[in-house]
Amino acid sequence: MNLIRTSLSLSLMGPALVWAQDMPFEAPPLQPSQMDFGGVGLMQMPTGRMAPEGEFNFAVTGSDEYLFYNVTLQVMPWLETTIRYTMVNDLLYSSDPSFSGDTKYTDKGIDFKVRLLEESEYLPELSVGVRDFAGTGLFDGEFIAATKRYSNPSLGTFDFTLGMGWGYLGTRDNISNPACKLSDSFCERPSDYKGNGGSVDFERWFKGPAALFGGVEYQTLHAPLRFKLEYDSNDYSEDFPVVRGGVDMTPHTPWNFGVLYRLGHMADLRLSYERGDTLVAGVSLYTNFNDMPSFWRDAPTPEVEDKQPEQLSDVDWERVTEELDKIAGYQNTQLYVEDNTVSIVGEQKKYRDRNEAHEKAAAILYNEMPNNIDTFTINERSGGLIGDQTAISKEKYRDFAEVNYITPSIEDTTSKGNEKPQGNLIYDGFERFDYGFSPQLVQTLGAAETFYFFSVGLKGEASYWLTDDLEVGGALYWDWYNNYDKFNYVTPPDGTTIPRVRTMFRAYRDEYPVTMQNLQLTWFKEYSDTMDQQFYAGYLESMFAGVGTEFLYRPKGANWAIGADANLISQRDPQSYFGVYDEKWQYVPEYGDPFQVIDKGFTGFVSAYYYPQWDFLSNLMVQVDVGQFLGGDVGTQINIAKQFDSGVIAGAYASFTNLTAEEFGEGSFTKGLYISIPYDIMTVKPSNNRANFSWQPITRDGGQKLNRKYELIQLTDERNPWYQRPNASNASNAE
Question: Which of 18, 455, 647, 674 has the fewest CB atoms below 10 angstroms from its CB?
Fold first, then answer.
């Protein structure tokens, strides 16, 4: 009877025990999620939250009126940036079908948000942001938002937001603009529409009507599922479809409702019901640049052996160079011997982490060199420049390899110096001729004629080193397919005020199926361990020929450098394979009205490079160039790049010249973004090469620079590693 009673009790308790096991001891964490416009937020409204540093998010969101393409990057813990393309449904880019055909109107916008205050026990997270910064003004607005979290293990996590918006985020006008109390100038918002786009309308910020918004994001106890509720501060009376297309977007309610379902650690599915009559759906794909480990299958480091040759004449130098290449990543090696020292000069093509390369090279040399050799040195070659020297003690390496002390490190065996290799060249493995082929994709997004311009083809490169510091090399490009025939830009009736240095890119692609991108002679000169120079002459890029030089002063270990370049140039004639223009004014019927080119010109800059050491600006590179651009306009280009723990680099640049926005044309000024991704986080083999992706929203002739083959700041990276920093992701694991 007791047994039956016990069994019955356990049976009744079973479901309760299972339910209890499913209940978490604490509520699942609420990770920030994206809103419709891109950036962390609810649906239409932003919040004060920030994503983890390094989070990269690509999102597509569709509704009746809009299709949003957003890319959001959390650059700093306190800085969020968003690039957005908005396709307006049912409205064409232009009323002239001969210009843009059936291309839908596409708006380009850049947003940013800055955190002012981190959340504490009593204070909310507080952020201020600008939407459609340097855009056309279709969605421009400003906001300040405060977000506070409440979590209960029995209910879940709630994120409450209260904010105030201006511009696009303030059209509901449900509160007086507090800035109006400071000055009457804040009471009215300038309403002029910047058709060219690209301008930074500081004069509009925080002006005109204001409105309160708010909402809550609820993380359920089921980790992937969350709900959103918001009060919308936009009444949609100034939306582009309303103003231009007469579309009725009057909201039936200011309340929007949404649900989000998270698929693992890579995607969010979003569905919302907005304005009381509109269904909005979207998907967000995300990763984090700070947490992208390198996993690869690699040759193991040779173990220490005691079977060394008795003397140098017994060394198989060819085998040594092959092992240095396959195992340690040093190519085109030259080996020198002086007394008890063997020196290596070679190009490191495998490891960003130089400690890994040093360890493997030391293991090879330890096993292959006779006992009387007690020191190994390594100098890296980059282009025609020989870098600083790393000396490795044979005795200390053995102690390291055999773990003869606590916490051994390869750095215990090395020392740095600025010496060059000494002694006799005992083996020359420098392959002076080199060639290679690689696919190439060039693309532009959001143009009037079509949303996506592209060219895909095959690039072939070859080079020959006449001496150790003098190279002749070139590159050919076979254009397999492009859609540049849709590019309709022609010379304006006034003939433009500046030469057509970049807007003729269609001609440079279409005249010949195979084009010569580069053919030049380059000479490198090292004056000291801080001063370097390069000279170059020939066809410098696909559009320009000429001669030039670059200087760079860069002390070892310094977080700054100063450089200068000067170039005499002539614009290449796209209708001639090797010719250049010899007259300033040209006329080609299919290019439009007569236009200017650079028959004989100058471009050059003084450049400053700075790597901030402050915590709130960690892992940044700032480059400022001052000088004359290709078109003869004078000004400054600012380039700011951020490197994340994985080695991924994301950067942005902008050129500001003496051209007015009207003289420049659509876009107002040149700007662009780029991402550089190390190969070794994408492949199963170690590599220190990079894949580079750039984006320039619109190509015009002002603020354009020469695309030089070599940049001394990259060739001297060893003095203060930036491009070649090892992967610092916590989960990094090479096998």
Answer: 18
**In degrees, to the nearest 5, what angle opens at C-alpha 483 toward C-alphas 477 and 488?**
115
To which residue do tokens 């311009």 refer? 453
What's the pLDDT at 46? 97
Residues in the chain: 735
Look at residue 268 and give its three-state secondary structure. Answer: strand
**pLDDT tens digits, one per residue of 640-688:** 999 999 999 999 999 999 988 777 776 677 888 899 999 999 888 888 8
Same domain, 282 and 357: no
Percent of all residues in the chain with a pLDDT value above 90, rounded to a whole number: 62
Q: Which two tokens stand for residue 423?
A: 């002694």
Average pLDDT value for the chain: 88
* Sign of the dihedral through C-alpha 447, 452, 455, 461: positive
How many distinct helices (H) and strands (E) make up the chain? 9, 33
pLDDT tens for each residue of 422-452: 889 999 999 999 999 988 887 777 666 677 7
CB of 89 within 8 A of CB of 64? yes
> How crowded is residue 290: how many other Cβ atoms within 10 Å of its Cβ?
19
State how far the Cα of 514 lies from the Cα of 577, in Å rounded to an integer.
Answer: 10
- φ, ψ at 715 (rounded to 5°): -65, -25
Question: What are the residues facing 378 on neighbouring strands?
Answer: 344, 390
Does 399 lie in the same domain as 476?
A: no
Report the distance separating Cα 115 and Cα 125, nearest Å.
8
**CATH number of domain containing 184:** 2.40.160.40
Cα–Cα distance list, 221 to 34, 144, 225 (Å): 20, 30, 8
3-state secondary structure of 468: coil
Q: What's the number of domains the chain is made of?
A: 3
pLDDT at 202: 74
Is pLDDT above 60 for 722? yes
**Same domain flag for 275 and 319:** no
Assess whether 456 and 403 both reside in one domain.
no
Nearest alpha-carbon partner for 141 in 123, 151, 158, 129: 129
- Reading the block at residue 99, the tokens are 């210009």
Give me the half-sphere count of Cα atoms (radius 13 Å) on the Cβ side of residue 480: 9
pTM, two decimals, is: 0.89
- CB distance 114 to 79 below 8 Å: yes
Task: Give the contacts of 308 (CB within 8 A, at least 6 positions apart).
Answer: 366, 367, 368, 369, 370, 371
CB 625 within 8 A of CB 607: yes
Structure-block tokens of residue 567: 């170039």
